[in-house]
Design goal:
- This protein is an alpha/beta fold.
- It contains 10 helices and 10 strands.
- The chain has a 5-stranded mixed β-sheet, sandwiched between helices. Strands 8-7-6-9-10 form a 5-stranded mixed β-sheet, with helices on both faces.
- Strand 7 and strand 8 form a beta hairpin.
- Helix 4 crosses helix 10, helix 5 packs antiparallel against helix 8 and helix 6 crosses helix 8.
- The termini are far apart.
- The structure holds 5'-O-[(R)-(carboxyoxy)(hydroxy)phosphoryl]adenosine and zinc ion.
- The site of zinc ion (ZN) has 5 residues, from helix 4.
C-alpha cells in the first residue's frame, strides 16, 4: 500500500468536463479536460442545457482516461472529490452523480469541493504549497471575487461583483467587437497592438473602500462607443458608427482600453484587500488570471507590497479537475467528507 494520498477529482461546474488524479494535494498524475467551447461559440456564451447534455456524453470517457493515464489502481484512491458548488446546476449534477457512483462502488470517501476554493488553490497545483494568510482574486466567466485565505479551505469573502463577472465582460466586449468566443484570449492578444489610453472607459465602484466590483457599465460603455448611444442625435460629418466601420487599429485600441479598465479595477481592489489583510501571498485564479495585463499588474503590486505572487500555470487557469483534487486533499485531511446525499448548489451565499 502506498503512503501517498491519491485523490480522484471531478469538475463539471460550467462547460469543461474534467477528471484528474492528484497525489498529496499537488502532484498531478493526470488531468483530462474535455472543453465544450466549440459547442457554445456560436451562441457567444455558455448555454446551460447544451452544457449539461455535453457533460453527460463526455463524463465516462473523461474519467476512464484520467484513471488510465494516471496508472493508479482505483483501490489506491483515498477519496473522490467533486465540485458541487457554485455553478450551473444541471452541469454540477452530472459530475456529482458520477462522483457519488464512484465513491459508492469503490467504497471511497466523497468530498464536496467549493469550485472557487479550488481556483484559489490552483497556483499550488504542480507547484509549491501556498503561504498564508493570502488574498485571492478569483476572476472567471462566472465569478469575480476577493477572499482572505487562511488555509486552502478557510476562505472569507471580502467582495464580489454585483453584476457581470470580469470574464463575462471580456466575452461580451469581444462579441460587440466581432472577435468571437471566448473573448478573453483574443482581447488579450490584440490589446498588445492597441493603445490602452485611446478610450477612457469607466472604472466602476472605486469610491470609498468598497471591495465589490461592477463590470456591466463598462460593457455598456464599450457598446455605446462602438454603436453610438441609442436615440442620441449625431452631429453631421461624424464617422459612421458600428463595428463594420472600425479599422483593425480602432478595434485594437478599444480592446486595449477595455482591458486596461478591467485590469485597473482588479488591481485597485486587490491592493485595497491587501492593505486590510497584510498577506504573505497574493493569489490569482480563474480564467481571467491568464490575462497577461493582469499578471503583469499583479506582479508589480506584489513587488510594492513585499509579498509573494502566486499564479496558476496557464492550463490551470481554466476550469480543471486537478485543482478540485488538489484542494480536495485538504478537505479530506480536515475530515470534511460528505454523505451520498451531498447536494449541488448553484450559488454560495455571501
Ligand atoms: O475559469 P473559466 O475557464 O470558466 C469559468 O468558470 O467561467 O474562465 C473562462 C473565462 C472566459 O470568460 C474567458 O473569456 C476568460 O475566462 N479568459 C480570459 C483570458 N483567458 C480566458 N480573460 C481575459 N484574458 C485572458 N487571457
Ligand atoms: Zn471556474
Amino acid at each position: 500500500m502506498s503512503d501517498r494520498t491519491y485523490i480522484l477529482g471531478i469538475e463539471s461546474s460550467c462547460d469543461e468536463t474534467s477528471c484528474a488524479v492528484v497525489a498529496d494535494g499537488g502532484e498531478v498524475l493526470s488531468n483530462v479536460v474535455a472543453s465544450q467551447v466549440d459547442l457554445h461559440a456560436k451562441f457567444g456564451g455558455v448555454v446551460p442545457e447544451i452544457a449539461s447534455r455535453a457533460h453527460i456524453e463526455a463524463i465516462n470517457s473523461v474519467i476512464a482516461s484520467a484513471i488510465e493515464s494516471a496508472s493508479v489502481d482505483v483501490d489506491q484512491f483515498s477519496a473522490v472529490a467533486v465540485a458541487n458548488q457554485p455553478g450551473l446546476i444541471g452541469s454540477l449534477l452530472i459530475g456529482l452523480m458520477a462522483a457519488k457512483t464512484l465513491a459508492w462502488v469503490h467504497n471511497l470517501p466523497l468530498v464536496g469541493v467549493n469550485h472557487i476554493y479550488a481556483h484559489a488553490y490552483s497556483p499550488a497545483v504542480d507547484s509549491e504549497p501556498l503561504e498564508y494568510p493570502a488574498v485571492a482574486l478569483v476572476a472567471s466567466g462566472g465569478h469575480t471575487a476577493l477572499y482572505r485565505c487562511d488555509s486552502p479551505i478557510e476562505l472569507q469573502l471580502l467582495g464580489a461583483t454585483i453584476d457581470d463577472a470580469a470574464g463575462e465582460a471580456f466575452d461580451k466586449v469581444a462579441s460587440i467587437l466581432g472577435l468571437g468566443y471566448p473573448g478573453g484570449p483574443v482581447i488579450d492578444k490584440i490589446a498588445h497592438e492597441g493603445n490602452p489610453k485611446a478610450v477612457d472607459f469607466p472604472r466602476s465602484l472605486l469610491k470609498g473602500q468598497s471591495l465589490d466590483f461592477s463590470f456591466s457599465g463598462l460593457k455598456t460603455a464599450v457598446l455605446y462607443h462602438v454603436n453610438g448611444v441609442p436615440g442620441a442625435l449625431r452631429k453631421p460629418n461624424l464617422p459612421e458608427v458600428g463595428v463594420e466601420n472600425l479599422s483593425d487599429s480602432d478595434i485594437a485600441d478599444i480592446a486595449a482600453s477595455f482591458q486596461a479598465a478591467v485590469v485597473d479595477v482588479l488591481k485597485i481592489k486587490l491592493r485595497r484587500a491587501a492593505k486590510i489583510v497584510a498577506p504573505r501571498t497574493l493569489i490569482l485564479g480563474g480564467g481571467v488570471s491568464a490575462n497577461s495585463g493582469l499578471r503583469r499588474a499583479a506582479a508589480v503590486l506584489a513587488g510594492k507590497l513585499g509579498c509573494k505572487l502566486r499564479l496558476p500555470a496557464l492550463k490551470y487557469c481554466q476550469d480543471n479537475a486537478a485543482m478540485i483534487a488538489g484542494v480536495g486533499y485538504h478537505y479530506l485531511k480536515a475530515g470534511l467528507t460528505a454523505g451520498l446525499d451531498l447536494d449541488a448548489r448553484a450559488t454560495v451565499s455571501r
